[in-house]
């Protein structure tokens, strides 16, 4: 996704969270929008860290693409700083720290689970390959034995 679209998503989520906080919604009421904002800002951070190579059809130079990514990231960072101020003003700094810590832990857990799942899938494929090879070898040996027995009887 391009940085402008990511920034638009971040701004939309920011406005939803900001208005939710202003309306006195409970944390659960703004959780989805807050999560969307965090995801958009994280995507912008990744995009700014390594902007795509782009293609010739976009008509943008590397400098334009890098500047666009940087500007979107800077604006998203400002949105997060403003949101933090609103959030801390309504729920307190401890609540903000808890949300950020929980977000970090959940991401780590998700990444670890994805790595574990990939490892288990690889192990399962290796097991299937070993057993498949053993079964194939068994049938080849049996077939050779049958052919030898037939040849000896004739």
Question: What this model shows, in words?
Answer:
By secondary structure, the protein is an all-alpha fold. 87% of the residues lie in helices and 0% in strands. α1 runs antiparallel to α2 and α3 crosses α4.
Model regions low in confidence, pLDDT < 50 over at least 5 residues: none
Shape: elongated
Give the termini separation: 72 Å
What is the mean pLDDT? 85
Q: How many whole angstroms does the radius of gyration measure?
A: 28 Å
Q: What is the beta-strand fraction?
A: under 5%
Helical fraction? over 70%
Order of helices and strands: HHHH
| Strand runs, count | 0
- With helices defined by DSSP (H or I, 4 residues minimum), what is the helix count? 4
Largest sheet: none
Structural class: mainly alpha
How is the topology of this model organized?
Layout: H1 3-22, H2 27-49, H3 62-91, H4 93-153
């Amino acid at each position: 996704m391009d940085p402008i679209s990511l920034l638009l998503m971040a701004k939309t989520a920011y406005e939803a969270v900001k208005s939710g906080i202003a309306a006195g919604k409970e944390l659960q009421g703004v959780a989805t929008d807050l999560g969307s904002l965090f995801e958009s800002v994280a995507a912008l951070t990744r995009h700014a860290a390594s902007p795509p190579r782009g293609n010739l059809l976009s008509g943008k130079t590397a400098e334009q693409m890098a500047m666009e990514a940087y500007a979107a990231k800077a604006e998203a960072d400002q949105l997060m700083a403003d949101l933090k101020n609103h959030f801390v003003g309504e729920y307190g700094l401890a609540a903000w720290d808890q949300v950020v810590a929980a977000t970090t832990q959940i991401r780590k857990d998700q990444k670890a689970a994805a790595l574990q799942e990939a490892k288990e899938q690889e192990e399962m494929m290796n097991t299937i390959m070993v057993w498949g090879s053993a079964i194939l070898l068994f049938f080849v040996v049996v077939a050779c034995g049958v052919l030898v027995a037939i040849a000896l009887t004739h």
